[in-house]
Amino acid sequence: MQDTIENFFTVDNLNIIMPTLLVICAFGLKIFRKYPPDPIDFVSTFIELPMDIIILALGYISSDTGVLGIGFGIFSVEIVLAIFTFGFCKASIAIYQSTNRTKKAKVQMVIYCLLSYVLAVASYYISVSIYGGK
Questions:
Q1: How would you class 109 by CB atoms within 10 Å of its CB: exposed for 0-12, middle for 13-18, buried for 19 or more?
Q2: pLDDT tens-place string over residues 5-44
């Protein structure tokens, strides 16, 4: 058990774990803006979480000091993914905050939210695979 813990908490892994924990802490702080937590704030914060994840992924890629051409190419792709992620998140929040939420609008909101999570988590996975491979 101790070997597993020591292998997990290496310096390279801590460079990934600590910023990720900061994003999770920021998520928790956003939820508890007021006490007791408001369900509306929780849903809004949950919808906005992919924006924080993709910014974290961009931070990992931007700190990669590997081959410049490949790093810049991946960074450029992730910038495009970030733009789409922000768009999907903002569209989802706009639908959530709308007073006229039909069933079709709710389905669109869920689809936009899922798309933003897929893009953000994929970007995070790629960034950690590249950054964490050192």
A1: buried
A2: 566 566 667 777 778 888 888 888 888 777 787 788 888 8
